[in-house]
Amino acid sequence: MRGGIYVSVASMLPHSYLWGASSRVARIIDEAELDGGQFLPFLGLESFDQVFAFNDPRFGFYEGRWGNGPLDKMLFGSRERSDALERRFAEHCPNAKVTSHRWGDPLVEINPEMGHVLRSVDELLQYPHGVAWDPWHVLRKAHDGGPSILEHLNTSYLDLVRIVFEADVVREFHFQPPRNEPWGWAVSEILSYTLRCLAGTPSVVPIIIETKPLAYSLELSETATINYLAEVRQFIVSCVG
After folding, report:
1. Is residue 100 classed exposed, middle or buried when 0-12, 13-18 and 19+ CB atoms within 10 A define those classes?
2. Which residue of 2, 56, 73, 148 pairs with 240 in a disulfide if CB–CB is 3.0 to 4.6 A?
3. What is the pTM of this model?
């Protein structure tokens, strides 16, 4: 069954970036009727601990910087800065869920870069900590052009998602349509099927919206972002209740 519906600050760009980001993010979450957000250490978010009370369940999720390339440096600043902000977040919100991309950590997001350590479906089903499930990362190729998780495991997406949700190992779901799909994501077989599987799991699974921000299509108004996220929320509710 689903838990709350949250949103990554990445999906709110450019409103979640630089000065004034904290108040804009809070307003977008409230007006889109979402339950909270997933924190990333973007530039401009140092004041989050002043905007949200410590242990505020609205920001009970954290994902670290994505890498150290030019885009990462623009969004996150230096590695030292983002690492220090992650430590401060962990100190202020010790009960938050921290999503990792490293096999062996308490909550790991399945991705093709871990293909060298994830060799079988059984290993996935027996992972003791549970996993975060993101359709985009399960379907995509590795950043170096290597095989996808599905190719590593020699299975199809629809078969794997059914098995994984039936085994009740998913602890967090990231709502991110495959990026090569057309704008009509609401009819996506992949997303609809995955959400139906989530609805049937006995665990309460929070959903984090990680859709591409409207800034990619040069739509920069805050109102448009609020309306878009409210539409995404309604689609999720229509699938899982």
Report:
1. middle
2. 2
3. 0.86
